[in-house]
Amino acid sequence: MTPVVLALPDNDDLAAALTAGLGAARGTLDLRRFPDGETHVRIDTDLAGREVILACTLDAPDVRTLPLLLAAATARDLGAARVGLVAPYLPYLRQDARFLPGEGVTARYYPRILGGVFDWLVTVDPHLHRLPGLEAVYPIRTAVAHAAPAIATWLRATVPNGVIVGPDAESAQWAAAVGERSGLPAVVLRKERRGDRTVHVSIPDLGPVAGRTPVLVDDIISTAHTMIAAVGQLRAQGTPPPVCVGIHAVLGQRAVEDLLAAGAARVVTCNTIPHVTNVIDVRPALAALVQEMLSP
User: Does 193 score more than 60 pLDDT?
Assistant: First the structure.
């Protein structure tokens, strides 16, 4: 039977891309609020015996998660054979250990919650620190689409004389992957954090890559403090205005404006979280992995 794609609020474009990429049917999911604030769920599509795919990126997770869980439970109750989740941005991976007494290890709790209603999950480049992979915390089948190929394709066409720059050690894996795919050289900066909002970045000798356009690459841009510090240091060394590339646009209110004010030429992101900076399309990679999930 033809799979059915259901879109959670603000995920219509993702659902449309999955529907087209999979040759799936688009289902109708209606969510509304009762006067007391509870969520009403109605699915006006026959789901009996069918594969059901919920499209829901999970920025603002505390707002989005409960309606998502209720929609998944409803789909299962209506006879879906399996219920899968496509969440290009996956939250609650930062707190993967108990750093202070009494803290909750939410990187383990949240996967149990999703795993209780979904059969499988597909996402893009999760923000893993000490975890070896999603399989370490998720009790269901998972698959990860990588943004590096799409970023590299965009860079080859847009910044052919670039040098990939990782703004800190954590970004080294993304810088290396994009550099390898794009054929551009890559360097990684050294970061010293001096408080929640103060970051110092040290620039290594740019040597043979001097004169190239720096392309700062990281998986998440949120406050952008690290990238802002890197942009300032690079500009102080006389580089061309850097291009800032993020996979997930978890952007604070003034992050883009602050990056541009610091001297960045442009800020671009992948379309894992809807934002005006979305330029790089990772949805084909998601659809390919979903097709593998649906295969017998």
Answer: no
Instruction: Determine the 3-state secondary structure of 120 from DSSP.
Output: strand
C-alpha–C-alpha distance, residues 114 and 89, integer Å:
14
Burial, 156: exposed, middle or buried (Cβ in 10 Å; 0-12, 13-18, 19+)?
A: middle
Query: Comparing 198 with 29, which gets the higher pLDDT?
Result: 29
According to the model, what pLDDT value does residue 200 have? Answer: 55
Residue whose token pair is 């069918």: 50
Q: Is residue 240 part of a domain?
A: yes
> What stretches of the chain adopt beta strand conformation (E)?
4-7, 25-26, 29-33, 39-43, 51-55, 82-86, 120-124, 141-145, 162-166, 186-188, 190-193, 199-202, 213-220, 243-248, 266-270, 278-280
Residue 94 placed within a domain: yes
Amino acid found at 294: L
With a cut of 50, say whether residue 188 has pLDDT above it.
yes
Handedness of CA 170, 59, 45, 71 (dihedral sign): positive
CATH of residue 84's domain is: 3.40.50.2020
Taking residues 210-239, what's their average pLDDT? Answer: 90
Domain that includes residue 94, residue range: 4-146+282-294
> Distance between CA atoms of 198 and 229, rounded to whole angstroms?
9
Lowest mean pLDDT among 55-64, 149-158, 226-235, 275-284: 226-235
Q: What is the DSSP string of 75-103?
A: HHHTT-SEEEEE-SS----S--S--STT-
* CB-based contact 75:43 (threshold 8 Å): yes
Pairing type for strands 4-7 and 25-26 reads: parallel
Q: What is the pTM of this model?
A: 0.92
Cβ neighbours of residue 148 closer than 8 Å, sequence gap 6 or more: 174, 177, 178, 180, 181
Are residues 257 and 286 part of one domain?
Answer: no
Cα(259)–Cα(276) distance, integer angstroms: 15
Whether 158 is in a domain gets the answer yes
Average pLDDT for 272-286: 97
Q: Do 161 and 242 sit in the same domain of this protein?
A: yes
